[in-house]
Amino acid sequence: MALAGQGLLAPTATAAEVEEPSALPLGLPAGGFASPRDNPSTPEKIALGRLLYFDSRLSADDTIACSSCHLPAKAFTDNLPAAVGIDGSVGTRSAPTVINRGSASEQFWDGRAASLEEQAKGPLVNPIEMGMPSLEAVTKKVAAIAGYREFFDEVFGRPVHIDDIARAIAAFERTVVSGNSRFDRYEAGKRDALTEAELRGLAIFRSKGRCSQCHSGWNLSDEKYHNTGVGWDQAMVDVGRFSVTGREEDMGAVRTPTLREISRTAPYMKDGRFDTLEQVVDYYDEGVIWNPFLDVELTRKTRTLEQTLEMYSGEGEPGPAPKAEVQDLELTDQEKRDLVAFLKTLDGEGWREIRAPSEFPR
């Protein structure tokens, strides 16, 4: 095989490590990262995907790789307000972390990709990301490299194809996981894993702060789409999920991001407008931007039980919530500090040893 360094055959993680529950970090569900039937994981496929993920030759000018916006050293994001692609082109959204994305189906902030495999193709031909003219052009460029031709034949038993490029990248990305945080250890029964301040923050997270209404489950994301008002103070509004579904109720809504590794993935929100977790907490506490499609969780406080039941029965007044119903959380300064302290307990492990290859196929 024409590889510059045979050590590249060593995968970041084996297929068993991806699919075997006992090998997943604490807090991650058994079977949660299993490969789809049409893309079974193997050590060789993961190794190939790792090469492709870090190889900037998949871009039009050989300068941008998948890892350019999703760097291991930065918890698989780029710590920029918006992703930067070829020729210094700047996108309109921040780059979400790859961590634990292998457990979900829909990808991107707006969920326009139905799988991790489909997501892998998108940036390749996005003109302000990797800028390739077509997926066919990507296939030809990779196939022109002898080392890749041999590697694809070994892994897939056929010539280079764009679907297999995506399958290999997705197989690698499913090994990018985070678990065994101090929060996970606390949930598993280690009562001293969190400090008193962090425990108070967890209580705020689950009650007064209402964070867990959207940041729920083992990955601290409901994988649903919500309009939180972010961006509605701009001249050009990001319509979010609406661009995919065309449904009015999806206007401005984006997928709930995971909170795992949140202390490492600033800046925050889809447009990277906040540099600190303190700013994020302040926004939800008293700065939410009203718009006609604002998520009900940000407006529900003033409704009585009877009003809520009436609303869901369809008998109430139709239409969007009035501006007066946007509700502050009324957190004290101490509660804000405690909440931020809790969020910092969500740093875990499983992804930290992943490194870029030192050499690539020739």
Number of strands: 2
Task: Supply the CATH superfamily name of the largest domain.
Answer: Cytochrome c-like domain
Shape: globular
For the largest beta-sheet, the strand count, sense and barrel status come to: 2 strands, antiparallel
Residue-averaged pLDDT:
90
CATH A-level architecture of the largest domain:
Orthogonal Bundle
Distance between the termini: 9 Å
What is the name of the CATH class of the largest domain?
A: Mainly Alpha
Structure description:
The protein is mostly helical and 362 residues long. The model is unreliable at 1-22 and 316-321 (pLDDT under 50). The chain folds into 2 domains: 6-173, Cytochrome c-like domain (Cytochrome Bc1 Complex, Chain D, domain 2), CATH 1.10.760; 189-346, Cytochrome c-like domain (Cytochrome Bc1 Complex, Chain D, domain 2), CATH 1.10.760. It has helices spanning 15-19, 43-54, 66-69, 116-125, 135-143, 146-156, 162-173, 182-187, 196-206, 242-245, 277-286, 305-313, 333-343, and strands at residues 225-226, 254-255. The longest helix has 12 residues, at 43-54. Helix content is 31%, strand content 1%. The radius of gyration is 22 Å and the shape is globular. The protein starts with 14 loop residues before the first helix and ends in a 19-residue tail after the last helix. It has a two-stranded antiparallel ribbon with strand order 1-2. The protein is built from 13 helices and 2 strands.
